[in-house]
Specification:
The complex is a heterodimer of chains A (512) and B (116).
Chain A: H1 3-26, H2 30-35, H3 42-53, H4 56-69, H5 71-98, H6 103-108, H7 114-147, H8 151-199, H9 204-214, H10 231-244, H11 249-252, H12 261-293, H13 295-301, H14 308-357, H15 364-388, H16 394-418, H17 424-443, E1 449-450, E2 458-459, H18 470-488, H19 493-505
Chain B: E1 6-9, E2 12-15, H1 17-21, H2 24-57, E3 64-66, E4 69-70, H3 71-109
Antiparallel strand pairs in B: 1-2, 3-4
The chains are: A mainly alpha (512), B mainly alpha (116).
Chain lengths: 512, 116
Amino acid sequence: MSGTVITLFLIIVALTLVITYYAAKKTKTADEFYTAGGGLNGWQNGFAIAGDYLSAASFLGIAGMIALNGFDGFFYSIGFLIAYLVVLFIVAEPLRNLGKYTLADMINSRFDAKKVRAVAALSTITIVIFYMIAQLVGAGALIQLLFGLDYWAAVLIVGVMMTIYVLFGGMTATSWVQIVKAVLLMIGTLVISFLVLYKFNFNIVNMFHEMKTITPLGSDYLNPGVKYKMPLDTLSLMLALVLGTAGLPHILMRFFTVKNAKIARSSVVTATWVIGIFYVLTIFLGFGAAAFVGFDKIKEANAAGNMAAPLLAGALGGDFLMSFVSAVAFATILAVVAGLVLSGASAFAHDIYGQIIKKGNVTEKQQMKAARYASVGVAILSILLALIAQKMNVAFLVSLAFCVAASANLPVIIFTIYWKKFNTAGAVTGMLCGLLSSLILVIISPNVFSPVEGAAIFIGKPLIDLTNPAIISVPLGFIGAYIGTVASKKQDVKRFAEVSVKANTGYRENDI
Amino acid sequence: MEKGKQTQQKGRKHIDYESIASSSKFKELISTKKKFIISGSIFFLVFYFALPILTSYTTILNKKAFGEISWAWVFAFLQFIMTWVLCTMYVRKAATFDRLADEVISENINKGEVGA
């Protein structure tokens, strides 16, 4: 690998570490560790949300999906973006008004039961791990491509680096890394898109015309149906994408880093613009990779297309652009994983350790220590799982995390805020139904079992055809929450009045 | 309403959330919000799912719109425009929500602060 690539790569990675170091010196309290002290403004938080969201899945995964599948890959871009309307309309502001550090806090503003907290923490940790696997698979492939290391060594190095990151930095550090990285990622993507357009003489109609003949798929490349031939599977994926974001713990946690609901709202708007522009540009990343790198080279570097974007950068802008883009992609993954580990760690340290094991009698110092141990635990588990998921597309892997989020978290979030009769039993059964059904359906799906050797983790016949189970598991999450509520009949109308007033007005007792 | 929304308890304010929740101002806030959020959500979900439904069950969108660009791509791009438009509309509308929310707080909770 050339000196330029490695030097530039290391400079950018070092830059993010410097930011972490300075932020770390400021991180003293648990509040700062988890939520950056609530002091980010709308712009900053909007870019940080974009940074969190534009993970390996978006940059590496979607570029590869579009490069290899044409229109079907673009479904991901659409779903990932429109999900923000669900966040903006239904979840962001009430969540900010009710929560403190974690999703469980918000649900607990209505139900005190420890069970609810435990189940919420469990689903948070599950989602975090699914998401982590995707990031580590992407990072592993990237480091493998850049440095020629073995995949396992690459995953291990990335995993260890990210853990160090979180242990020293906490949320202030990850927020700033996210902001810096979102800006760099946008610059990289704009430059590549510009070069792709330049190659097509800035004529988009002409670009589509050429794409029709340039790939082995011929004119099918431009039509839907290359990858998603089963209508129900397509709809299931789209359902997971649009509803998942509003249940993702590391995105929800971002709303606790701002002072109030108004700033939460403006940060979602900023994020929607940044993310939307990025996703429009994924067309150029994907088409460009298919045209100027070629199917064979993309697949050779990584079977699922995960290396399409860095290869395209290399083909258009040489070593320099490739190393810049790779470094940005690496920083992206580093930052996203940091955010993920952090939300997993806070679910463990704050909810399970602090509130359940120690029953709230816990010093900040003990809690910080628990959070750090939990970070290490989450990281180790994800690294192990990432080692077996090498051949999967990272955008696809992330869609499974979205599915769990949409099935386990979203029904309960919506009912907690909006349904008067909702109760503790409903919250517990809803989350368990959504969580277990999505996990079980993934385990018996074609992702895990395939009759063809090497196509999935085990050889065998899958019990269902759906690659993404959202179309079954999301309704089950809602039904579970409903049945649990109706069956136990308990309700606390007084408490709902309080939750409803607080969620809708942003009033807090300690404000006065 | 006359029962008094709050009483002093060991220096900490006790707030009767049930009476706030049943106040007319709060109900106005909720119904304004609901109207916008429910109709907006139904609209974007229908618009969104129309794309995969049309591409999965029909081939209408494979017809060409501009050169080799088919209606599927045009519809896909419209999804982005739709998101940004709804986002902007929400922010405008939210100014009303904020105003009503402030009024709920000042009429019900901070009432009687003066001279207390």
